[in-house]
């Protein structure tokens, strides 16, 4: 049955699509087949590791055809830094699956581009800041959330770390976005977080076979996994739409409670403007973007932090001694302690370097014909840049495979910034939640190590540092033993 479907798909594509060959002066790359292009040669997992191999075989810039659409993989560190900064590489791909998930339009602050993206990003960042993003209000929200985590962990001897921090990180940003905080036992939200995890684990940075051959969405939605993805996305969008409409029922222009209210106000003010970029669908996708960032990227980084804490007890001991000296035990760590906790900053930086959540940057699109390393890159080419190649470059880091926080400290034990340390990206597409993420990581990590010691449960194998692949990276499931410090 599956063979019949595939053959039918190929025949239909050959009949209705023009088979394109590589553009002139395009970068070298793996073989290109009719209809599907180079998709059969792309790995379903660990694309960043494949890009390491292709760097040696094809060079820093690798050319692909995703179906009939050109794409380039940026595998060299210097080329990645260049591409992420150049203006003509800042678009987002016109992928069929992304369009369908976003109401067949470019909406939100993540997968949009052009003037629409500029206006929406500025609006979102400005008003989140007004509501407390990056201010003492956010620190209070983070501190309240970690206290709930502490209370739960006091009743726990062994913790399964996977997915544990998802709700906590969502609650911080969600308090500003929707004025809502959820309990850890909220079944509905746990289901949504599970669906989101499935989306990120099963997804592909290149869009997969469905992006190369869109007709597969129609003739083989179950086989390709497209239907499962669509179901998860639909449920999440339904959840956000309900929240927005409940807000609208109690909306008062002179009493704006959160970001959703601020956005609704702008929608109403621009209701007569046919060129307005503000709509209910746009707000749904923006909520999706913010929700996903908190639930997936930040929570996975926290999980990686616990992973390296138990794998390197000497680092844990150093952090705890420093916390005892600087903070003591009569109060909680706060952001004001950062200047005296330079080693903590180094530990968190090393976690994000050695196993970054974003091993591959979200796909970009070339907005005009251009060149890179002497190769011609046509307009609308998809661009996939490896952050892994920068964060694991042997020439720059010396021993990139070794967990060594001291690499970020000078001779006086002061934290030293490194221009290659870009886990949140660089340029115009830098993650707008970077400040929030860094604040959550600092307060959560220091509070956890002030209160507890973590180790491997007796009999458990040593956890693997090989991450779970997907759109983002996550640690493989592992457990920790929790011991409350005196």
TrEMBL record:
Q: Which GO terms describe its cellular component?
A: cytoplasm
Please give the InterPro entries that the UniProt record associates with this protein. Answer: Cyt_P450, Cyt_P450_CS, Cyt_P450_E_grp-I, Cyt_P450_sf, Cytochrome_P450_fam2
Name of the protein this chain belongs to: Cytochrome P450 2J2
UniProt keyword Iron present: yes
List this protein's GO terms for biological process. organic acid metabolic process; xenobiotic metabolic process
Q: Where is the signal peptide?
A: 1-21
Keywords of the record: Heme, Iron, Metal-binding, Monooxygenase, Oxidoreductase, Signal
Q: Which PROSITE patterns does UniProt cross-reference here?
A: CYTOCHROME_P450
Q: Which residues does the record give as heme binding sites?
A: 431
Cofactor(s) required for function per UniProt: heme
Any single GO molecular-function term of the entry would be:
heme binding
UniProt lists the family membership as follows: Belongs to the cytochrome P450 family.
